[in-house]
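INTERNAL AUDIT FORM
Audit reference: QA-55
Scope: verify that the stored structure record matches its stored sequence.
Auditor: D.O.
Record contents follow.
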Amino acid sequence: MISSIAWVPAGVADARPKKYELSPAEQELILLMEQQGGINDSRKKTKAEKAVSVIASSHSAAPNSLPADLRMDEYSDDDDDEAEMGVGRLLLASDAEDSESDEDADSQDADDAAPRNDDPSNNVSESDDDSDDDLNDVPDTREYMALDVQGLEAMGLSQVGGRYTDMQMDELGNQEDDDDESDIADVALSPTDAILVVGKAEDDFASLEVHVYDRSTGNLYVHHDIPLPAFPLCLAHGQVSSQGKTGNYCAVGTFHPGIEIWNLDVLNALEPSCVLGGEDTTAADDLMQAQAMRGSGGAKPKVRGSGGLRPGSHTDAVMALSWNPIHQQVIASGSADMTVKLWDVSKAGSGDQEGCNAATFSHHNNKVQSVAWHPVEGTLLATGSYDRTVALLDARGTGKDVKIVKLPADCEAIAWDIHNPECLTVASEDGTLACYDVRQFETSKPLWSFVANQFGVSDISYNRLVPGFLAISSPDKTVTLWDAGLPGTLSMKEPPKLCGSKDMCSGKLYTVQFYPSDPWLLGTGGSGNQLALWDFSNESEIQRRFAGRVASKSGEQAQVVEAADAKPIEAELESMMAKRETSPAAEAGNGMNKRNKAKGKSPNKPRKGR
């Protein structure tokens, strides 16, 4: 089953992903050992030296762990038959026993069949037979025995002690280089690749799969996958890590209360880059450090934490995630514990878990199903809940000034239209689709509302490159395409028009997303456990209706995105998320000053002599 998907914008992923990356706990352990003197300069070795030491230790330890008959490097070069022919005797032991038993049986039969005659002429001298079979006087012209160490080395079959010739070493080195280049070529990404992250669960195994779609050839394959501890419920792609560096990251919400952030450019990732909230693992990390320091002779670190949840963590499953497109270090999350939390990813790397949770809002009375940051206003957040409401809040406030609108059914999905930033579209469980003008949000009257699918709506997505292009997924296994009209026209106040539908053959659909870097590509997933893509390049009806909009509006869209990205981000997260602690009297005074300014009057000033 595929519960959620997230596209990676073109140019964000590393063309040559890394195989492994040290986790924060491992980095902290290495730093601690260096500080405690556990790693001295005299003990630091290069990779080649470490490899040589490992090979030498393995060869030195291997013979001691073998039986005495197989310790080939301990054989002497003398003519001792017992020592020199030990391997041959061991290999041919069973054959010798069988042949001896056969010879005894044949001799016994021969004795029984032979006539008893005491005539000396019938007897053959044993000395004559021995003299015919005696080969001790024949010289052995072989330089080496085939079953001893020198013989194996002479035939090029021995690798004991790493005794390679220069030519063999060159051949091995070339083979390793070729293997490395082949491995790199297998995982390398091309500019035409479209990357899609899939949250998937099959039986009892949950994973995060990174799919690659080659748009030039149409090939779709799994590039690599990441095991997850629990069933994934939501995904969000971002580009800021816990160390404040830019990269290719994916936040994952599961049935656990923690939010895991994974580096998608690491192939064999064993741990997430950081975890927001969730179970407190500091005691386990300190115990691992204590064991490592005890082995290296360093001072034992202090064990912190006592289990339970980290400060500021959700207490139930994380059902919704949204990565802020303007303030890229901020993540919003909605949970089954009926709260909405804001997180500062950059503080997760410092270990300040309490400061990592920047704010918590509790304006919903049921599970929070959807959260979505405004595409241009970086402090405006929309949330939807199973309490049949959708809310609009300012992330800089305390949550008391939240604007709430009632819905006809539970909220399933919300989406902003990048081409009409004032429009918020909401999908309900009963299949109702409604669009609200956030400038008139308090009126609770949508611009338009209609039943898009009688079986319900599971997800909605706007095309970032084609104005008015809307896609809806439904549990009836279909994706429907809608024309919401051009911005600034009268059609924006009318319900969208259906312009296409397709059964994606992926079971009941739970998620749908347009590719942000290509106007004609869409991805979806559901209960069929298979990712499905829809390429509109050859859809004549879609091209006829929307192709002209891309040509005429691409420049305007680029300007909108550049304007959003060019906004100064010098305002720190602390000031952006600062809670306004002003008193009611002060707020009333501020409101009075604003009214006086509007009327052309100056605000009241204290009179002299008071």
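Auditor finding: record pair retrieved intact. The longest strand covers residues 193-202.
Action required: none
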